[in-house]
Amino acid sequence: MKKRQLRWMKLDNSAKLYPATKRRDWSNIFRLSITLDGMIDPWLLQEALNKTVRRFPSIAVRVRAGVFWYYLEEIERAPRVKQDHSYPLTHMPFDDIQRCAFRVLYYKNRIAVEFFHAIADGNSGLIFLKTLTAKYLELSRSIKIPCEQGVFDVAEQPREEELRDDFLRYAGKNPLKQSEATAYQLKGTPLPNGFRDLIIAELDVKEVLDVAHEYKATLTELLVTVMIQSFLSVQAERVPPKKRRPVKVLVPNNLRRIFPSETLRNFVLYVSPGIDPKLGDLTFEQMLSDVHHQMALELTPYRIAARIRSNVGFEQMWVLKLLPLFLKNIGMKIVYNMNGEKKTCITMSNLGAVKMPQEMAAHVQRVGFTLGTQHTSPNNCAILSFGDKLYIELIRSIQEPVLEQRFITNLRDMGLHIKLSSNYGYGGVQ
């Protein structure tokens, strides 16, 4: 039998940063999970994965090092599914990423996939997980799930539109360069052995939307402003007035909602709304209005196209193209250390409302989304809703839960009802 030709692809514009900024004890990964109404059969999950990977040649890959750039190479076969770890997002060594850049885990009735960020964003990762879960349900429950609402037909051939780097396609003609001030950085006592503490806040979607609409804001704008408010109050207690820095939140935005794109590769651009404490003591309404206008301005298509051009233009410089990979890595790591994590306090990523076919949703209890912490920034936040529930996952790499306590208290002060769970069971925040 003739051996199948494996695809290889250049990293997309967004992905080039992730391999270059890796460290021995840190890599940029995120996690998506679906909890079902019955225990997972690992043998059937493996069979479902074997059938699913060929449909996603831009995700079922390993990261390879070339002379001038890293690139993605399709894997020959699916990785083995493994029982889940004691906590999410355990370190993924780069040696593992060079063999397979994602892993599939199971625990009791939960299926989870953890992705190295160079191969997918949360939106494409969710399509992969929903397709895998649908195939598992078909095998384990003998039901037919229609290929709709982000569930792909695994028998279908991948389309070229799914494999395209759409940053190149939608880059504007002229770049937009922006300089940003260094933001406040929360510090604390590192958790031992790479442990990550995870607190999950479960809220009623309608309750949160009602509050957001009272303020004439979106759900994301409301939560981002509450997070800014929380950071400002923590900083006010810890830092003298003259040394206080701006508080900014990094908010990824799915560009498929702005441009007509079907890519399954990274296609997200970040905006960083924030408040400078030098403006004085603003009311919550004033902060929310400011955040609303900042996000509205940055998410106009022409500004996004110009910012993409700035990013794409950098990698297309002929001098940079000629540099060998090890020198590119040194340069990108220096730039990232000087600018990357220092310009914002935290990432808040909202995947929005997760939809799936009713035949599948009938067997799904909840959907999870977890961001890893950054190398120096100890907190991150991931958000999605499923059914009538909103899930906010707050992860940290330090012992002190000061930010989570402040954030959840601020939400409760708005009259919102919150159910909490954590790595240690219910009641993670007292």
Structure report:
By secondary structure, this protein is an alpha+beta fold. The chain folds into 2 domains: 8-170, Chloramphenicol Acetyltransferase; 192-354 and 364-426, 2-Layer Sandwich (Chloramphenicol Acetyltransferase), CATH 3.30.559.30. It is built from 13 helices and 17 strands. It has helices at residues 17-20, 42-52, 94-97, 122-141, 166-170, 205-214, 219-238, 284-298, 301-315, 318-322, 325-340, 358-361, 402-413; strands at residues 8-10, 29-36, 61-65, 70-74, 82-83, 102-107, 110-116, 197-204, 247-254, 268-271, 274-275, 346-353, 364-371, 379-386, 389-396, 419-422, 425-426. Strands 8, 9, 10, 11, 12, 14, 15, 16 and 17 form a 9-stranded mixed β-sheet that branches. α7 crosses α8. The termini are far apart.
The CATH topology of the largest domain: Chloramphenicol Acetyltransferase
The span between the termini is 62 Å
| CATH H-level homologous superfamily name of the largest domain | Nonribosomal peptide synthetase, condensation domain
DSSP strand content? 15-25%
